[in-house]
Amino acid sequence: MGSIWKMLGISGLVFTVLFLSLVCSSVRADVSYDDKAFIINGKRRILVSGSIHYPRSTPEMWPDLIQKAKDGGLDVIQTYVFWNGHEPSPGKYNFEGRFDLVKFIKLVHQSGLYVHLRIGPYVCAEWNFGGFPVWLKYVPGIEFRTDNQPFKVAMQRFVQKIVDMMKSESLFEPQGGPIIMSQIENEYGPVEWELGAAGKAYTAWAAKMAVGLDTGVPWIMCKQDTAPDPIIDTCNGFYCEGFRPNKPYKPKMWTEAWSGWYTQFGGPVPHRPAEDLAFSVARFVQNNGSFFNYYMYHGGTNFGRNAAGLFVATSYDYDAPIDEYGLLNEPKWGHLRDLHKAIKQSEAALVSSYPTVTWPGKNQEVHVFRSKSGACAAFLSNYDRTYPTKLTFRNIQYDLPPWSISILPDCKTEVYNTARISSMSSQAKMVPISGDLSWQSYNEQTPSADDSDTLAMDGLWEQINVTRDSSDYLWYLTEVGIASDEGFLKSGQWPLLTVMSAGHALHVFINGLLSGTVYGSLDSTKLTYGGNVDLRAGINKISLLSVAVGLPNAGMHYERWNTGVLGPVTLQGLNEGTRDLTKQRWSYKAGLKGESLSLDTVSGSSSVEWIEGLLLAQKQPLTWYKTTFDAPEGSDPLAIDMISMGKGEIWINGQSIGRHWPGYKAKGSCGECNYAGTFSEKKCQRGCDQPSQRWYHLPRSWLKSSGNLLVVFEEWGGDPTQISLVKRTT
Ligand code: GAL
Known about the structure:
The protein is α+β, with helices and mostly antiparallel strands and 730 residues long. It has four domains: 45-329, TIM Barrel; 346-423; 429-442 and 597-729, Jelly Rolls (Sandwich), CATH 2.60.120; 445-591, Jelly Rolls. The protein is built from 15 helices and 38 strands. The protein has an eight-stranded parallel beta barrel, surrounded by four helices. Helix 7 (189-195) crosses helix 8 and helix 9 runs parallel beside helix 10. Bound molecules: beta-D-galactopyranose (GAL). Beta-D-galactopyranose is lined by residues 123-126, 186-187, 236, 256, 262. Keywords: Glycosidase, Hydrolase, Signal. Belongs to the glycosyl hydrolase 35 family.
């Protein structure tokens, strides 16, 4: 036989490898699991994972982010798949630019890391509509995430499409690719419980459908203790040490170890101390956990209109180990890297046995792992929240700070303690770049009910039903006739206009003049405008600009939640008493004039006449601003300081960098941050009474060397001359 291979030019060694790999792959899958851990190519592994969502950064940033994740000791990158980004209209797919999923996965592969692909397609994730395309809501008879045929058909089609795409690119591990696990659904457990029988049927269907796709790698359902075999149920939370999978033969996995939390406009900036995060991870591992994933490892930016409802901010920094701009968030990144090193040094013992647990003293706990071949690793804990302790283990005394765990990979040498930080901390700075921007302005006109491009209907219509989320903005326009003998015209006691809206923000114009602005709170997006309005005898124009700030991403049947002015709308204080405007004729105009003219683009912006110099609009509502600038030198990440502005959206060279809303100041409790204790997203908050988000990331890769067009649409009125470019440095 040797001579045949010689003739074919294949050496004996290569043949042996080929033969062995054929034999091996025919007798077992490359990725499987048991009660202890994931098994990759026959080896149980402790897997360190981190979430990086590909559309929350630019493809140019991906290689550096992945490298930093690798340097931080990660084995796996976890990402959701964002359906609404990939299928913006039915059957029209987009896998380009930030949505180039295959490219992202291939880059992770090239760096030698694995991928956990959370196909969902429900993702939650503070992403608009939880990742579902808005058109899905309008499929006849549909109900999301339940035993509903139209939904199941659409979901299966998308999941199948993604799996087929991954297979055709050979991206699953058994094909030689990096994907070692997938996820179907997301935190469906509580929803199933609420829905009862329909929820159970849907879970059974989703599990069967996913497993039937034959990816060759295990599936996961997070936060769902009903996950049917062979799907693994996993934990999400700030702490997961007490979690148990639903079957004794499944490994204990933590799909979302929250490294911080997301920011909302109107809320403070969450912070999770590195010590507590490290403590929670070490505690999980000593309690038998073998997979943990930082959600997020790099949060990034909610570019465009991708941020979800309830005022999720444009920054999705998350206080993650790599910050929004791609820089290391120290000491968190370094402290976790050191933790991962210590865990990896202990891996052989960790995957070989269940620990022996002892309690040598008050609030003290010792976990010892031993392998048959003699490896030994110990985790020593002090659960006291206030006092350090001296713990004696195998005749050696160890000093443990409060609320901390020490790791001894050889059962002797303490290489790491979760509360002792040895990496340097860094304070990221925003440094202004000199050079004033020279602005021009253009006023967005208030449309009239009789404009030819409006749509007239009786009564008030739900906003998304009209806009299909093509824009944040919907004008509700109507007219009110006032007789010349109305009493208020003489008395000057102006009638009270009341407008009830499901949210999320509202500007009220009377005869073209702004009469008030209201917006929802972080507890509820619902709002009510109430104001005395200056009406004249004759026909008066009432123009309501209703503004959506992202669609909901979570909650029972959130597809049924409403946006916009649904009424009642009333006028009180007329001769007749109260006039109800709710059911009268209203005209609708979706989007802004500036949007339809594409003012954010180079060609579009030249279609109108802009004003500059002394006439530049300042502190005027509904104003477009534009300027051009050359790319600043160097490679530091860039941002725009929007402190002088109120609310709106920003574009660079036609790309939306997201909504700005520095006018919404943070309400929260920015008290003392004592990490030793059970952490929640309400603890350790920062930036109270400041704008929730002042700086907006301007990706370098969206800039040309010169003549970059920066466009801002401002709803409230601001001073653009104070807007500045800054660079982020540490
Ligand atoms: C989880 C969810 C994630 C994300 C997170 C909060 O419950 O699975 O997608 O929304 O909460 O950031």
